[in-house]
TrEMBL record:
InterPro entries: GMPPB_C, Hexapep_transf_CS, Mannose-1P_guanyltransferase, NTP_transferase_dom, Nucleotide-diphossugar_trans, Trimer_LpxA-like_sf
Species this protein is from: Planoprotostelium fungivorum
Family: Belongs to the transferase hexapeptide repeat family.
Domain Nucleotidyl transferase: 9-214
Name listed for the protein in its UniProt record: Mannose-1-phosphate guanylyltransferase
């Protein structure tokens, strides 16, 4: 029996949508920001390919967004992914922001070419196990046109997301609301979908014909959640597959450490884990070109980029240190992201709040984040602060955004 033919669409967004990810997105597109030594969107591809292996025939991966497709970072990423996973990859550039479904509609011919039976859609700002094979099995069993990956969350958090009312036995979606003001369900939309290719575009056409657009609105704009899921949820067209596994939405730069911890755990065998030469605790990744003093202690959940220099007695845990930064002797870095080409002075301390994700409203200042080229003076303390690129910090700061 032949495997079903599928494609994978990853919505990567564009620069105007990445403001909450600053300062990390000021020097590289958010989807290509390195988390656990790999671009963020690489983790989507890796998990998706692993899940579909032997379960479906993945014909192509399409990255849809409005970043400049001529940026060499994209071509380099695509070449590397094609070589590693042996799957064709294309970047399809939108003219601007057209909603979560606008690009899919515009590039329908590219999606439909080769006649795939189904296609997946993943939002680039969600991190999870991407159980695509389970999603496929649930979708086929349901006989529906659409399957949404869902997850239960605490009731007081559900209003931040799209909420799904699901029939307890059939898993049929009977109501959908995007960020409702009142509580309707503790099952949320995880931003991962599976569509039956032919019926999806038929549904879209029917919905667009019946919808009333506001005067002056962009005719090319289309939101999957509001313009499709909400109206068709009453027509028994949507199935929901409930996940019990890790899921997080990468809304802000401060959530990077949480995602980093997850990737370090699930990809331990694939990543360049440090083995010797200095003190290691837990999962630690170090680029071969980094120079680390034997008395330094790293871990758990630490990633050290290319060309980094770490001096004697340095302590780093639950942090990311990006390429070509220098961490001088006896400094301490906890729950922080150190940007490219930063210098951390002797006996300095960078510190974030370990339970930052529970502070309320997912604020990014739960951890300390240094942009590109920041210099921190000797014997200073930077706590729970965000520092924009090329700043020279001569004093101590706490709970600040330093422009």
């Amino acid at each position: 029996m032949s495997l079903p033919k599928v494609k994978l669409v990853i919505l990567v967004g564009g620069p105007s949508k990445g403001t909450r990810f600053r300062p990390l997105s000021m020097d590289t597109p958010k989807p290509l920001f390195p988390v656990s030594d790999k671009p963020l969107v690489w983790h989507h591809v890796s998990a998706s390919c692993a899940s579909l292996n032997g379960k479906a025939d993945l014909r192509e991966i399409l990255l849809i967004g409005f970043y400049d497709g001529k940026n060499p970072e994209w071509s380099k990423f695509i070449s590397n992914v094609e070589a590693e996973f042996k799957v064709p990859v294309r970047y399809l550039q939108e003219e601007g922001r057209t909603g979560t479904g606008g690009g899919i509609i515009r590039f329908r011919n590219e999606i439909q070419s080769g006649s795939p039976d189904y296609f997946y859609v993943e939002h680039c700002d969600v991190v999870c196990s991407f159980p695509l094979a389970d999603l496929l099995q649930s979708h086929q069993s349901s006989g529906k046109d659409i399957t949404i990956l869902g997850k239960r969350v605490p009731s007081d958090q559900a209003h931040r997301y799209g909420c799904i009312v699901v029939h307890p036995e059939s898993h049929e979606v009977i109501h959908y609301a995007e960020k409702p003001e009142t509580f309707i369900s503790d099952i949320i939309n995880c931003g991962v979908y599976l569509f039956s290719t032919t019926s999806f575009f038929d549904l879209v056409e029917k919905v667009r014909q019946n919808s009333k657009r506001e005067p002056g609105s962009d005719p090319n704009s289309f939101q999957l959640e509001q313009d499709l899921f909400m109206p068709v949820s009453h027509n028994k067209a949507i199935n929901c597959f409930l996940s019990q596994e890790f899921w997080i939405q990468l809304k802000s730069a401060g959530m990077v450490i949480k995602c980093h911890e997850h990737f370090m755990r699930v990809n331990a065998e694939k990543l360049k884990l440090a083995k010797s030469g200095f003190q290691v605790q837990g999962n630690v990744m170090v680029d071969p070109t980094a120079k680390i003093d034997p008395s330094a202690k790293l871990g758990p959940n630490v990633s050290i980029g290319a060309g980094v220099v770490i001096g004697p007695g340095v302590r780093i845990s639950n942090s990311i240190v990006l390429d070509n930064s220098e961490i001088k002797e006896r400094s301490c870095i906890l729950y922080s992201v150190v940007g490219w080409k930063c210098t951390i002075g002797k006996w300095a301390r960078l510190e974030g709040v370990p339970d930052f994700s529970a502070q309320g409203d997912d604020k990014s200042n739960g951890i300390t984040i240094l942009g590109n080229g920041v210099t921190v003076a000797n014997e200073t303390v930077i706590r729970a602060s965000i520092v924009l690129p090329h700043k020279e910090l001569s004093g101590s700061y706490a709970d600040q955004i330093l422009l």
